[in-house]
Design goal:
The chain is α+β, with helices and mostly antiparallel strands. About 20% of the residues lie in helices and about 30% in strands. A five-stranded antiparallel beta sheet has the order 6-5-4-3-7.
Length: about 150
Amino acid sequence: MPESPKTRRMASPWGDLEFTPVERPAAAPGAGTPSNRGTLRADGRPRASRAAQFMPFAALTGYYDLVREQERIVEPRHELTEEEGEELSRAIMQARRGDLVRITYYDRGGYKTRAGIIRAIEPERRRLYLGDSMIPFDDIWKLWRP
């Protein structure tokens, strides 16, 4: 069998082996720099494509999110006294669109405190918009303006 000019024969314990080197595609400018060394495989494909086959397989999609949700400790809601309710009602009625406020409200089993600018207030629907968040009046514990 005639050998191609690039094929090499090598002696080994198993007999003579033929070795044909793989040609790499033309390198981009600066490809020989130390920072780019080792990013391509011998066949010219990036190493990241090989690593993608070893990504973990998630057969139970959403399972770990559900487990984390079950581990979360739920904080009980604080019932407002009559005085706190009147004070909160006054603060909501005095608040205007564009005001900078700090608000403490109940969200998904716990209290959060956020500061932001009121985007809108809908008294008929009993909700307040703080940035991108919609906060029902019933979930608000404290509202104050700095």
